[in-house]
Amino acid sequence: MAIEVGTKLEGKVTGITHFGAFVDLSGGVTGLVHISEIADNYVKDVNDHLKIGDVVTVKVINVDKDGKIGLSIKQAVDKPASEVRPPRAPRPERPSGGDRFGGGSGGGGGGGGYNRERGGRPFKPAAGKPSFEDKMSRFLKDSEERMSSIKKNTEGKRGGRGAKRV
After folding, report:
1. How far apart are the first and last CA of the chain?
2. Where residue 68 sits, what CATH number does that domain have?
3. How far apart are CA 166 and CA 156, in angstroms?
4. Which residue range forms the structural domain that includes residue 59?
């Protein structure tokens, strides 16, 4: 039997670890139910919810290329319509101008009110989706700017680079 994502199966708990439980599905195929997929509430100890030999209904949530099977007990339980949360409403737009914390203009560079002096970046609307390389080069540039600023500020305080000590 081929195991496909989304199918619900019955299995027997064969092992318990601090990070989850191993479940034998059928034909010697074993999958892992991660601790976060055991119950809807917080699970501190897997042993509080499962015992070796328990027969459980699981839902296949992923199958890796190397044969690892990810299972979920909490997704296998059909919830009544009253328990299913409706999707979140989008957040309302913030008014432009003013800084993030509700003050005046704060010298920010345009909408969004980020203050360059406090380490913020001016707001730039996304023109298309930037590639990973674009994001990485921007991160490196910002990081180098911040590090040089930190070095300039700390050298004077420590007396580094030729500062005369009395």
Report:
1. 82
2. 2.40.50.140
3. 15
4. 7-72
Tell me if 89 is assigned to some domain: no
What's the confidence (pLDDT) of residue 92?
73
DSSP conformation letters of the chain: ----TT-EEEEEEEEEETTEEEEE-STT-EEEEEGGGS-SS--S-GGGT--TT-EEEEEEEEE-TTS-EEEESTTTSPPPTTTSPPPPPPPPPPPSSS-TTS-S-TT-SSTT---GGGT-------SSPPPHHHHHHHHHHHHHHHHHHHHHHHHHHHT-SSPPP-
pLDDT digit string (tens) for 22-72?
999 887 899 999 999 999 999 999 999 999 999 999 999 999 988 899 999
Q: 3, 25 in Cβ contact below 8 A? A: yes
Q: Are the CB atoms for 73 and 28 separated by under 8 Å?
A: no
Look up the pTM and report it: 0.48
> Residues 132, 139: contact at Cβ < 8 Å?
no
Residue 108 structure tokens: 């920010």
- The answer to whether 73 touches 37, Cβ cutoff 8 Å, is yes
For the chain, how many structural domains are there in total? 1
